[in-house]
Amino acid sequence: MIILNSKRASFADALFCAQQHFWHGNYNSEERLIFSISVKYCTLYVVFAIGSLQIALSGYVITPIVENIGRNKSDRVLPFKMWVDLPLTETPYFELAFASQAISVYLIGAAYICPEMFLCVFNLHVMGQFRILQHRMLNFWNVESKGMNADTYTDHCYAALKKCIKHHQLLIEFCKKLEQVYTMPIFTHMVVLSLLLCFDAYEIVVVPRCSNKYVDSTLTVSVRTTVFGKTPCNANTSPSLRVIFLFHGVGSLGQLLMITYTCHFMMEESTNIITTMYSGSWSTLPMNDVGRSFRSAMKFIMIRSLKPCCLTAAGFFPLTLETFTSLLSSTFSYFTLMRQSFMRSDGE
Q1: Cα separations (Å) of 45 from 34, 50, 252, 327?
Q2: Which of 8, 114, 207, 299 is the most buried (most CB within 10 A)?
Q3: What is the DSSP letter of 232?
């Protein structure tokens, strides 16, 4: 949010561009159908993201409610510990603290997924716009040619190709705006998600029980230190906390998949312009001045499409499905390293 706030002018520019050229474009019936499919994908993604968020955050609120059943008022717990000089277990301080923490959880969760939600919505609409562009490239050949000679038909195709080139340039420029706004947030998010998935898997899987009550509460200290001559293990994780970590890990995995998925298929659709352009009836055009200009423009748009429109993580790597599998592999490597460090005996 801090990075996006520093680039709020560029973000507002990208939002205005999408609203002006994508969401309120002049489409025919077939193009409107393609656009409605993009809107459907965006709706399904938003419902999935918000639903996953509600499930993940509800664990933080439901867990203390369940744990407080049967407890005394002096022994009640909050969703998060607070170190303040107030009697938080007594009424009305407990209710006020509980409500404020619950509201804060949902506000933080919304702020956590909103930037990436906007990015995925942008990507899905750009993917739809590339499909609309491909549809236009394939269909401007099918004009009624009765009463139209070869030169007039060539002029018509060349004028239609110019409109497609302007549309292509608009999409390329929009992708550059997204890259400028999101390149650093994407890099930060990839690193954080990889670490969070590793820690979630560690808390879910590697939770051996121990009876030593003098265990340090800090995990990195308690794993490999000794207390009173004994080798303590990490603190016991309750089943409710395991469920929270499980939902958090699944939500983070789904969020990572959607970001890389939408970026990957936006890149694929941008490169499909080459095949679509070559599949046209350009070979039937006469070799006059307009025909040669058409073929020259056609070659330029195909050459430009060789460089896909993609988003990168601070310029280090593009976001594709291969990035998703690579991050999962890195996360599993970190998890294996932490697990081996935990299982190692003191003599090693």
Answers
A1: 17, 8, 14, 22
A2: 207
A3: -
Question: What letter does residue 70 receive in the DSSP assignment?
Answer: T
Spatial separation of the C-alpha atoms in residues 65 and 77, rounded to whole Å = 8
**Are residues 94 and 78 in contact, defined by beta-carbon separation less than 8 angstroms?**
yes
Question: How many residues are given for the chain?
Answer: 348
| H-run or E-run covering 33 | helix 29-67
Tell me the β-bridge partners of 230.
227
Give the DSSP per-residue string, 104-129.
HHHHHHHHHHHHHHHHHHHHHHHHHH
Q: With contact defined as beta carbons under 8 Å apart, do 277 and 134 qualify?
A: no
| Continuous segment of H or E residues that includes residue 179 | helix 150-205
DSSP secondary structure letter of residue 315? T
Per-position pLDDT tens, the chain of length 348 = 888 888 889 889 988 988 888 888 788 888 999 999 999 999 998 888 888 888 778 878 888 888 888 888 778 888 888 888 888 888 888 889 899 999 998 888 888 888 888 889 999 999 999 999 999 998 888 776 556 788 888 888 899 999 999 999 999 999 999 999 999 988 888 888 888 887 877 777 765 444 333 333 333 333 333 333 343 444 455 676 777 777 777 777 888 888 888 999 999 999 999 999 888 888 888 888 988 999 999 999 999 999 989 899 888 888 888 888 888 787 777 777 766 766 664 445
Considering the entire predicted model, what is its pTM? 0.79
Phi–psi pair at 21, nearest 5 degrees = -105, -25
Assess contact for 266 and 123: CB atoms under 8 A.
Answer: yes
Tokens 């020259």 appear where? Answer: 296
